[in-house]
């Protein structure tokens, strides 16, 4: 099974949203992980909350450093923020790399509901991007 690593700087929001979504959408195709170049040490509670709204439980995810995956045979690296894209090291072997930048919902301000709305918007944008990626992946896969 192909291994996908989703990178973000803090590994607290966007990368966990993407990891949870991709696992949910394609666990039969990929072993999915996430990590950060400067991990925050926690998964943002609102990220957990907005994923639960979709029936996806990321409450057991942990914030990890990308170095944990350097020797894990990663096939595809996806960066979801500009800082992680620039900090992404070279991975051994033939690695596919994609950069899909999304705003960091952890920086959202406003009322609690306005902040949740930003988290939902980022979650939904990630889901749309992953859906397009998976459609292309499935179309190009040998039958």
Compact summary:
The protein is an alpha/beta fold and 143 residues long. It has helices spanning 14-26, 45-52, 82-87, 112-140; strands at 2-8, 30-36, 76-79, 96-99. The two termini are 16 Å apart.
Q: If you had to describe this structure to a student in words, what would you say it looks like?
A:
The protein is an alpha/beta fold and 143 residues long. Helices cover 39% and strands 15% of the residues. The protein is built from 4 helices and 4 strands. The protein has helices at 14-26, 45-52, 82-87, 112-140; strands spanning 2-8, 30-36, 76-79, 96-99. Strands 2-1-3-4 form a 4-stranded parallel beta sheet. Strand 1 (2-8), helix 1 (14-26) and strand 2 form a beta-alpha-beta unit. Helix 1 packs across helix 4. The protein is globular, with a radius of gyration of 14 Å.
What keywords describe this structure?
single chain, 143 residues, alpha/beta, 4-stranded parallel beta sheet, 4 strands
């Amino acid at each position: 099974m192909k291994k996908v690593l989703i990178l973000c700087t803090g590994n607290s929001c966007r990368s966990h949203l993407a990891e949870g979504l991709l696992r949910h959408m394609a666990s039969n195709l990929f072993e999915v992980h996430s990590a950060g170049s400067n991990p925050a040490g926690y998964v943002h509670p609102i990220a957990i909350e907005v994923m639960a709204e979709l029936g996806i439980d990321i409450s057991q995810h942990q914030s990890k450093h990308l170095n944990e995956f350097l020797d894990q045979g990663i096939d595809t690296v996806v960066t979801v923020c500009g800082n992680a894209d620039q900090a992404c090291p070279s991975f051994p072997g033939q690695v596919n790399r994609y950069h899909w930048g999304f705003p960091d919902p952890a920086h959202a301000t406003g009322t609690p509901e306005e902040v949740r709305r930003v988290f939902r918007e980022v979650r939904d944008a990630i889901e749309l991007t992953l859906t397009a990626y998976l459609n292309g992946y499935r179309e190009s896969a040998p039958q």
